[in-house]
Design a protein that fits this description.
The protein is an alpha/beta fold. The protein has a single domain, classed as 3-Layer(aba) Sandwich (Rossmann fold), CATH 3.40.50.300. 35% of the residues lie in helices and 19% in strands. It has eleven helices and eleven strands. It is globular and about 65 Å long. The termini are far apart. The relative contact order is 0.15. The structure holds adenosine-5'-diphosphate (ADP). The site of adenosine-5'-diphosphate has 19 residues, from helix 2, strand 9, strand 11 and helix 8.
Protein backbone atom coordinates (compact mmCIF):
# COMPACT_ATOMS: atom_id res chain seq x y z
CA UNK A 1 0.00 0.00 0.00
CA UNK A 2 1.36 3.40 -0.91
CA UNK A 3 0.61 6.39 1.27
CA UNK A 4 1.35 9.96 0.21
CA UNK A 5 3.31 11.38 3.08
CA UNK A 6 5.08 14.61 2.25
CA UNK A 7 8.84 14.75 2.27
CA UNK A 8 9.42 17.86 4.39
CA UNK A 9 12.69 18.73 2.81
CA UNK A 10 12.35 18.91 -0.95
CA UNK A 11 9.74 20.17 -3.35
CA UNK A 12 10.40 17.45 -5.94
CA UNK A 13 7.06 15.67 -6.46
CA UNK A 14 8.89 12.60 -7.81
CA UNK A 15 11.11 12.23 -4.70
CA UNK A 16 10.78 8.58 -3.68
CA UNK A 17 10.77 9.57 -0.01
CA UNK A 18 7.21 10.86 -0.50
CA UNK A 19 5.71 7.48 -1.14
CA UNK A 20 5.67 4.30 0.90
CA UNK A 21 6.55 1.23 -1.15
CA UNK A 22 4.23 -1.82 -1.27
CA UNK A 23 6.54 -4.07 0.70
CA UNK A 24 7.74 -1.44 3.15
CA UNK A 25 6.78 -1.42 6.83
CA UNK A 26 5.75 1.85 8.44
CA UNK A 27 9.00 1.84 10.47
CA UNK A 28 11.18 1.21 7.41
CA UNK A 29 9.37 3.94 5.50
CA UNK A 30 9.88 6.40 8.38
CA UNK A 31 13.60 5.53 8.50
CA UNK A 32 14.02 5.85 4.74
CA UNK A 33 12.12 9.12 4.71
CA UNK A 34 14.34 10.53 7.46
CA UNK A 35 17.46 9.48 5.56
CA UNK A 36 16.32 10.77 2.19
CA UNK A 37 14.91 13.94 3.75
CA UNK A 38 18.37 14.68 5.12
CA UNK A 39 20.15 13.94 1.83
CA UNK A 40 17.62 15.90 -0.28
CA UNK A 41 19.15 19.17 0.95
CA UNK A 42 22.50 18.32 -0.64
CA UNK A 43 22.89 19.28 -4.30
CA UNK A 44 25.74 16.95 -5.29
CA UNK A 45 27.02 13.72 -3.74
CA UNK A 46 30.36 12.17 -4.61
CA UNK A 47 31.87 8.92 -3.36
CA UNK A 48 35.59 8.36 -3.08
CA UNK A 49 36.37 4.65 -3.49
CA UNK A 50 39.44 2.46 -3.67
CA UNK A 51 40.11 -1.22 -4.17
CA UNK A 52 42.52 -1.34 -1.23
CA UNK A 53 43.48 0.74 1.82
CA UNK A 54 46.55 2.94 1.93
CA UNK A 55 46.35 4.31 -1.62
CA UNK A 56 45.37 7.84 -0.56
CA UNK A 57 41.57 7.59 -0.72
CA UNK A 58 41.02 9.71 2.42
CA UNK A 59 43.70 12.16 1.29
CA UNK A 60 41.82 12.64 -2.00
CA UNK A 61 38.45 12.93 -0.21
CA UNK A 62 39.76 15.52 2.27
CA UNK A 63 41.55 17.61 -0.34
CA UNK A 64 38.56 17.45 -2.68
CA UNK A 65 36.35 18.91 0.07
CA UNK A 66 38.96 21.62 0.73
CA UNK A 67 39.25 22.45 -2.98
CA UNK A 68 35.48 22.82 -3.24
CA UNK A 69 35.56 25.13 -0.21
CA UNK A 70 38.36 27.19 -1.75
CA UNK A 71 36.18 27.59 -4.85
CA UNK A 72 33.38 29.09 -2.78
CA UNK A 73 31.21 25.99 -2.44
CA UNK A 74 29.80 24.66 0.81
CA UNK A 75 31.11 21.13 1.18
CA UNK A 76 30.60 18.35 3.69
CA UNK A 77 33.14 15.57 4.15
CA UNK A 78 31.71 12.34 5.54
CA UNK A 79 34.27 9.75 6.62
CA UNK A 80 32.58 6.33 6.83
CA UNK A 81 35.78 4.35 6.55
CA UNK A 82 34.83 2.06 9.45
CA UNK A 83 38.14 0.19 9.34
CA UNK A 84 40.49 3.13 9.46
CA UNK A 85 38.89 6.56 9.72
CA UNK A 86 41.92 8.72 8.90
CA UNK A 87 40.19 11.99 7.96
CA UNK A 88 40.41 13.39 11.54
CA UNK A 89 44.19 12.79 11.55
CA UNK A 90 44.69 14.25 8.07
CA UNK A 91 42.78 17.41 9.03
CA UNK A 92 43.99 17.85 12.62
CA UNK A 93 40.64 16.93 14.16
CA UNK A 94 41.69 13.98 16.33
CA UNK A 95 40.26 15.57 19.48
CA UNK A 96 36.99 16.61 17.89
CA UNK A 97 33.79 15.07 19.24
CA UNK A 98 30.41 15.15 17.57
CA UNK A 99 27.71 17.06 19.47
CA UNK A 100 24.09 15.98 19.38
CA UNK A 101 21.22 18.47 19.38
CA UNK A 102 18.07 18.11 21.48
CA UNK A 103 16.30 16.86 18.37
CA UNK A 104 18.79 14.00 18.15
CA UNK A 105 20.70 15.42 15.17
CA UNK A 106 24.48 15.15 15.00
CA UNK A 107 26.39 18.40 14.44
CA UNK A 108 29.35 18.07 12.05
CA UNK A 109 32.64 19.75 12.94
CA UNK A 110 33.35 23.02 11.10
CA UNK A 111 36.82 22.85 9.52
CA UNK A 112 36.58 26.19 7.69
CA UNK A 113 33.72 28.58 7.01
CA UNK A 114 32.95 26.49 3.89
CA UNK A 115 33.82 22.92 4.91
CA UNK A 116 32.24 20.74 7.61
CA UNK A 117 33.46 17.29 8.56
CA UNK A 118 31.81 14.26 10.11
CA UNK A 119 33.80 11.13 10.82
CA UNK A 120 32.90 7.81 12.31
CA UNK A 121 35.85 8.52 14.64
CA UNK A 122 33.95 11.44 16.23
CA UNK A 123 31.44 8.90 17.57
CA UNK A 124 33.93 6.36 18.91
CA UNK A 125 35.14 6.18 22.52
CA UNK A 126 38.52 4.75 21.53
CA UNK A 127 40.38 4.12 18.30
CA UNK A 128 39.91 0.32 18.45
CA UNK A 129 36.17 0.35 19.01
CA UNK A 130 35.12 -0.16 15.38
CA UNK A 131 37.13 -3.38 15.15
CA UNK A 132 34.70 -5.26 17.39
CA UNK A 133 31.52 -4.10 15.65
CA UNK A 134 29.38 -6.76 14.08
CA UNK A 135 27.50 -6.36 10.79
CA UNK A 136 24.16 -5.02 12.12
CA UNK A 137 25.93 -2.49 14.34
CA UNK A 138 27.96 -1.25 11.38
CA UNK A 139 24.79 -0.98 9.28
CA UNK A 140 23.13 1.04 12.08
CA UNK A 141 26.07 3.44 12.33
CA UNK A 142 26.21 3.90 8.55
CA UNK A 143 22.51 4.73 8.50
CA UNK A 144 22.87 7.14 11.40
CA UNK A 145 25.72 8.98 9.69
CA UNK A 146 23.65 9.41 6.55
CA UNK A 147 20.32 10.22 8.18
CA UNK A 148 21.16 12.20 11.30
CA UNK A 149 24.02 14.55 10.50
CA UNK A 150 22.69 18.09 10.29
CA UNK A 151 24.78 19.51 7.41
CA UNK A 152 22.45 22.35 6.58
CA UNK A 153 22.26 23.16 2.86
CA UNK A 154 25.36 21.88 1.05
CA UNK A 155 26.61 22.22 -2.52
CA UNK A 156 28.36 18.88 -2.22
CA UNK A 157 28.87 15.97 0.11
CA UNK A 158 32.05 13.92 -0.30
CA UNK A 159 31.72 10.41 1.13
CA UNK A 160 34.96 8.64 2.05
CA UNK A 161 33.90 4.98 1.83
CA UNK A 162 35.56 1.89 3.32
CA UNK A 163 38.00 0.33 0.81
CA UNK A 164 36.99 -2.60 -1.40
CA UNK A 165 33.66 -3.69 -2.80
CA UNK A 166 32.15 -5.48 0.20
CA UNK A 167 28.93 -5.07 2.15
CA UNK A 168 29.79 -1.72 3.69
CA UNK A 169 30.50 0.35 0.56
CA UNK A 170 27.56 -1.44 -1.06
CA UNK A 171 25.20 -0.45 1.73
CA UNK A 172 26.46 3.16 1.72
CA UNK A 173 26.04 3.57 -2.04
CA UNK A 174 22.57 2.00 -1.95
CA UNK A 175 21.41 4.12 0.96
CA UNK A 176 22.56 7.38 -0.62
CA UNK A 177 20.81 6.44 -3.84
CA UNK A 178 21.06 9.32 -6.28
CA UNK A 179 24.75 10.26 -6.12
CA UNK A 180 26.52 12.08 -8.97
CA UNK A 181 29.18 9.41 -9.11
CA UNK A 182 32.42 8.04 -7.75
CA UNK A 183 36.09 8.90 -7.97
CA UNK A 184 38.29 5.81 -7.81
CA UNK A 185 41.73 6.22 -6.27
CA UNK A 186 44.57 3.89 -7.07
CA UNK A 187 48.37 3.83 -7.09
CA UNK A 188 50.70 2.88 -9.98
CA UNK A 189 51.35 -0.54 -8.38
CA UNK A 190 47.62 -1.18 -7.98
CA UNK A 191 46.53 0.03 -11.39
CA UNK A 192 46.85 -3.30 -13.15
CA UNK A 193 45.30 -5.30 -10.33
CA UNK A 194 41.86 -6.83 -10.24
CA UNK A 195 40.87 -4.56 -7.31
CA UNK A 196 40.60 -1.44 -9.44
CA UNK A 197 38.64 -3.25 -12.12
CA UNK A 198 36.38 -4.62 -9.39
CA UNK A 199 35.77 -1.09 -8.07
CA UNK A 200 34.77 0.02 -11.58
CA UNK A 201 32.46 -2.99 -12.06
CA UNK A 202 31.01 -2.33 -8.60
CA UNK A 203 29.99 1.16 -9.80
CA UNK A 204 28.61 -0.20 -13.08
CA UNK A 205 26.48 -2.79 -11.25
CA UNK A 206 25.06 -0.12 -8.96
CA UNK A 207 24.44 2.35 -11.81
CA UNK A 208 26.85 4.71 -10.12
CA UNK A 209 28.67 6.83 -12.71
CA UNK A 210 32.47 6.56 -12.56
CA UNK A 211 33.61 10.18 -12.63
CA UNK A 212 37.17 9.05 -13.09
CA UNK A 213 40.28 7.30 -11.84
CA UNK A 214 43.00 9.19 -9.97
CA UNK A 215 46.46 7.62 -9.95
CA UNK A 216 47.99 8.72 -6.66
CA UNK A 217 51.64 8.50 -5.55
CA UNK A 218 52.65 8.44 -9.22
CA UNK A 219 56.27 9.57 -9.45
CA UNK A 220 58.36 11.69 -7.13
CA UNK A 221 59.14 15.32 -7.88
CA UNK A 222 62.63 16.15 -6.58
CA UNK A 223 62.32 19.24 -4.36
CA UNK A 224 65.80 20.40 -5.48
CA UNK A 225 65.81 19.98 -9.25
CA UNK A 226 62.02 19.50 -9.83
CA UNK A 227 62.79 16.40 -11.97
CA UNK A 228 60.19 13.64 -11.73
CA UNK A 229 61.37 10.12 -10.92
CA UNK A 230 58.90 7.30 -11.52
CA UNK A 231 59.66 5.22 -8.44
CA UNK A 232 56.92 2.74 -9.27
CA UNK A 233 55.76 1.66 -12.70
CA UNK A 234 53.67 4.45 -14.22
CA UNK A 235 51.34 5.32 -17.08
CA UNK A 236 49.18 2.22 -16.55
CA UNK A 237 46.33 4.18 -15.01
CA UNK A 238 45.45 6.02 -18.19
CA UNK A 239 45.59 2.83 -20.28
CA UNK A 240 43.51 0.92 -17.76
CA UNK A 241 40.88 3.69 -17.61
CA UNK A 242 40.68 3.77 -21.41
CA UNK A 243 40.40 -0.02 -21.48
CA UNK A 244 37.53 0.08 -18.96
CA UNK A 245 35.85 3.01 -20.73
CA UNK A 246 36.03 5.42 -17.75
CA UNK A 247 37.59 8.90 -17.53
CA UNK A 248 41.18 9.27 -16.34
CA UNK A 249 41.46 12.30 -14.06
CA UNK A 250 45.23 12.35 -13.75
CA UNK A 251 48.20 11.48 -11.60
CA UNK A 252 49.34 12.98 -8.32
CA UNK A 253 53.04 12.64 -7.47
CA UNK A 254 54.44 11.62 -4.10
CA UNK A 255 55.14 14.65 -1.96
CA UNK A 256 56.89 14.25 1.41
CA UNK A 257 55.16 17.47 2.44
CA UNK A 258 51.82 15.69 1.95
CA UNK A 259 52.89 13.03 4.47
CA UNK A 260 53.98 15.74 6.94
CA UNK A 261 50.75 17.68 6.34
CA UNK A 262 48.73 14.48 6.93
CA UNK A 263 50.63 13.64 10.12
CA UNK A 264 50.29 17.17 11.44
CA UNK A 265 46.69 17.65 10.37
CA UNK A 266 47.48 20.57 8.06
CA UNK A 267 45.03 21.10 5.12
CA UNK A 268 47.45 20.31 2.27
CA UNK A 269 45.92 21.88 -0.88
CA UNK A 270 45.18 25.03 1.06
CA UNK A 271 48.57 25.48 2.75
CA UNK A 272 50.83 24.11 -0.02
CA UNK A 273 48.95 25.32 -3.11
CA UNK A 274 52.17 25.96 -5.08
CA UNK A 275 53.57 22.42 -4.78
CA UNK A 276 53.38 20.17 -7.87
CA UNK A 277 51.24 17.55 -6.08
CA UNK A 278 48.73 20.21 -4.94
CA UNK A 279 48.53 21.61 -8.50
CA UNK A 280 48.15 18.09 -9.91
CA UNK A 281 45.39 17.41 -7.40
CA UNK A 282 43.45 20.58 -8.24
CA UNK A 283 43.82 19.78 -11.95
CA UNK A 284 42.54 16.21 -11.39
CA UNK A 285 39.34 17.34 -9.67
CA UNK A 286 38.55 20.14 -12.16
CA UNK A 287 35.76 18.11 -13.84
CA UNK A 288 34.00 17.79 -10.48
CA UNK A 289 34.34 21.51 -9.81
CA UNK A 290 32.92 22.03 -13.31
CA UNK A 291 29.83 20.00 -12.39
CA UNK A 292 29.18 22.32 -9.45
CA UNK A 293 29.99 25.46 -11.45
CA UNK A 294 27.30 24.59 -14.01
CA UNK A 295 24.85 24.46 -11.14
CA UNK A 296 25.92 27.66 -9.44
CA UNK A 297 22.82 29.81 -9.15
CA UNK A 298 23.54 33.40 -10.18
CA UNK A 299 22.15 35.88 -7.66
CA UNK A 300 18.74 37.08 -8.87
CA UNK A 301 18.39 40.82 -9.55
CA UNK A 302 20.76 43.67 -8.73
CA UNK A 303 22.75 43.73 -5.50
CA UNK A 304 20.98 45.48 -2.66
CA UNK A 305 22.19 48.90 -1.49
CA UNK A 306 21.78 52.46 -2.53
CA UNK A 307 23.77 53.83 -5.45
CA UNK A 308 25.66 56.92 -4.26
CA UNK A 309 25.42 59.99 -6.50
P1 LIG B 1 43.63 5.45 2.39
O1 LIG B 1 42.47 6.34 2.74
O2 LIG B 1 43.55 4.95 0.97
O3 LIG B 1 43.83 4.35 3.37
P2 LIG B 1 45.28 7.73 3.15
O4 LIG B 1 44.64 8.85 2.41
O5 LIG B 1 44.97 7.61 4.62
O6 LIG B 1 44.97 6.34 2.42
O7 LIG B 1 46.86 7.86 2.88
C1 LIG B 1 47.76 6.96 3.44
C2 LIG B 1 49.07 7.73 3.74
O8 LIG B 1 49.68 8.11 2.52
C3 LIG B 1 48.86 9.01 4.55
O9 LIG B 1 49.92 9.14 5.46
C4 LIG B 1 48.94 10.11 3.50
O10 LIG B 1 49.41 11.35 4.04
C5 LIG B 1 49.94 9.51 2.52
N1 LIG B 1 49.76 9.99 1.13
C6 LIG B 1 48.64 9.95 0.37
N2 LIG B 1 48.88 10.46 -0.86
C7 LIG B 1 50.18 10.84 -0.89
C8 LIG B 1 51.05 11.45 -1.87
N3 LIG B 1 50.61 11.77 -3.09
N4 LIG B 1 52.33 11.71 -1.51
C9 LIG B 1 52.79 11.40 -0.27
N5 LIG B 1 52.04 10.82 0.68
C10 LIG B 1 50.75 10.54 0.40
Amino acid sequence: MASNTTCNTCSDPTCSAKTRQHDESVEDFARRQRLQGNLCRIKHKFFVLSGKGGVGKSTVAANLALTLGMNGFRAGLLDIDLHGPSVPTLLGLTRAQARTTREGLIQPVALTSQVSVMSIAFLLQGEDEAVIWRGPMKAGVIEQLLADVDWGPLDALIVDCPPGTGDEPLSIVQKVGDADGAVIVTTPQQVATADVRRSISFCHKLDLPVLGVIENMAGFVCPHCQKTTDIFRTGGGEAMAADMGVPYLGRIPIDPELVNAGDQGVPYVQKFAERPAAKAFVHAVEPLIGMLERDRVPAAGPASGTVQE
